Amino acid sequence: KATMADASSNQFAGKLRQSKNAVPCNFDSLTVRAKLRYDPEAIGLASTDYGHIVRDIPFAVLYPTSSDDITELIKFSNKCPLPFNVSARGYGHSVRGQDMSHNGIVVNMLSLNEQYKNATGIRVSTAGHYADVGGEQLWIDVLNATLQHGLAPVSWTDYLYLTVGGTLSNAGISGQTFLHGPQISNVLEMDVITGKGDFMTCSKDKNSELFFAVLGGLGQFGIINRARIVLAKAPKRVKWVKMLYYDFSIFTRDQEHLISINGLDYLEGELMMDYTPIDDWRSPFFTPYNESQISSLLKKHGILYCIEMVKYYDDETANLVDKEVQRLQVGLNYIPGFSFTRDETYVDFLNRVRQGELTLRSKGLWDVPHPWLNLFVPKSRIMDFNAGVIVDILHREKKTKGPLLFYPTTKTKWDDRMSAVTPDEDIFYILGLLHSGNFSNWQDLDNQNNEVLEFCDRAGIKLKQYLPHYKSKEDWIKQFGSKWNTFQRRKAQFDPRMILSPGQKIFNSV
Ligand SMILES: Cc1cc2nc3c(=O)[nH]c(=O)nc-3n(C[C@H](O)[C@H](O)[C@H](O)COP(=O)(O)OP(=O)(O)OC[C@H]3O[C@@H](n4cnc5c(N)ncnc54)[C@H](O)[C@@H]3O)c2cc1C
User: Which residue ranges does the record assign to the FAD-binding PCMH-type domain (predicted)?
Assistant: First the structure.
């Protein structure tokens, strides 16, 4: 008796034949077809993401329960005269359909959790100071598991409900990046299923070409099945400080000073505009009294620049931490009286965006369009960037809706052999325009993003997009710059039939 899966997979094979005009593959030999789903719930989930801008409908969604399932699917695709695309979907927090697979198959990575039964996909080595973590694991779970051993990863993202495989495919950046490098700089080893369906263990010394290709590789070379993440002793608490500026050059000088001295654990920054709420949804920080003080200042200056810095501490250093924060603030020129401090647990600080997420969800404001633009801007052009983008476009047009992140980081901890790209300067700034729109105005916000990109292009500011999205091959070549040839060569080596992560729209889809 034919099962639902059989019926659907025959349909699937039929559609594939039709659309590709291909010699049929023998789907009967695909044992994993029982784990393919075609129902509206599975397809609906796989054809949307956090961006709510792109909608690419796959033929089917694989719910794997082991890495063998994924290996079999990819090998099968390779054997087809015209292969179908396969895209890993972590937590679906891409904003431009990078996790989708039009007419192909999406692999729901979270379903790999099924294989662990009562255990988890996170194994901590206290002796080695590392954790072996499934690519499908969320960073919040990595944090909770490692803390049980008094350890934690050193490099984070601002938000922890992202998968390890998803962030390692980009870079994984936050306020610790200047000190420890991005998350991709804190990986010792990986198991990867390549676009040919080969299961390979790789590290700096073993299959290093694959190792560096996958880190920041936008899912183009393989699916990360396991990553070995560097751990260090976890602190217990943090002193979390925000300082305000109205002068951009003093703000950036102080930010750069802070990332050049010893002792700081985290540095970010934000742009505050007189037409947006003072506390953005990501991490409410100020008291109502502080807010009214800041509001008067904003009325006067139009834009304020905010440095956010953190010092970790634990029981042994608790009596020294205030002095240490004072030492870090020596010589800083923030507006007198506009330095604010909070004391939080390390976990609450790292997980600071979660509360904002839950609040937005409860108001129906989470699943809305997110036309984000994230840029890496070279330090040498930062004054031009402020005049042309922050003051002239963002502040004059008064359109932005959502957090505006702006902080410097260092290039030294980014290994140039990795696929991730940065500007060609020792220090560059990270700009995050984290817009939340609605279904009628998001295009307006996106037009502004394009205006920003066009201004930088005209001004010759050689920036790189983070979480990039481009429509033309020329733009991708420009994004990768001197790394483009290597990127192409690695694609030919590890995914010659161009099966993986078509949603990135880098190579022609098959
Ligand atoms: C609220 C929010 C806050 C964020 N904050 C930060 C931040 O502070 N710092 C930062 O760096 N980023 C941040 N991001 C961006 C985030 O890191 C990326 O969108 C990341 O890709 C999301 O992970 P995911 O698991 O949802 O990946 P998905 O969106 O599911 O996938 C992203 C890409 O990776 C590929 N992929 C997924 N899993 C694997 C795997 N196991 N192996 C190989 N390829 C895979 C997919 O095919 C796709 O191309 C944030 C995103 C959101 C929505």
Answer: 54-234
The Cα–Cα gap between 377 and 460 comes to 11
456 and 499 assigned to the same domain: no
Q: Is the CB of 134 under 6 A from ligand 1?
A: no
Q: How many CB atoms lie within 10 A of CB 216?
A: 24
Instruction: Point out the domain boundary residue: 176, 203, 233.
Output: 233
Closest ligand 1 atom to 501 CA: 47
272-286 burial, b at 16+ Cβ within 10 Å, e below that, comes to bbbebebbbbbbebb
C-alpha of residue 455 to centroid of ligand 1, in Å: 28
Cβ count near 323 (within 10 Å): 9
Q: Is the CB of 409 under 6 A from ligand 1?
A: no
State in Å: Cα 373 to ligand 1 middle.
14
pLDDT tens digit sequence for 477-498: 999 999 999 999 999 999 999 9
CA of 239 to the centre of ligand 1 (A): 28
Is the CB–ligand 1 distance for residue 197 below 6 Å? no
Q: What is the pTM of this model?
A: 0.95
Q: What is the set of active-site residues?
A: 93, 158, 268
Alpha carbon nearest to ligand 1 atom 44, residue: 219
The yes/no answer to whether this complex scores an ipTM above 0.90 is: yes
Q: Supply the range of the domain harboring residue 175.
A: 115-233
Residue 243 sits in a domain of what CATH number?
3.40.462.10
Structure tokens at 55: 């909608």
The predicted pLDDT at position 329 comes to 98
pLDDT at residue 248 in the model: 98
Q: Judge contact between 114 and 108, C-beta under 8 A.
A: no
**Domains identified in the chain, total number:** 3
Is the same domain home to 86 and 144? no
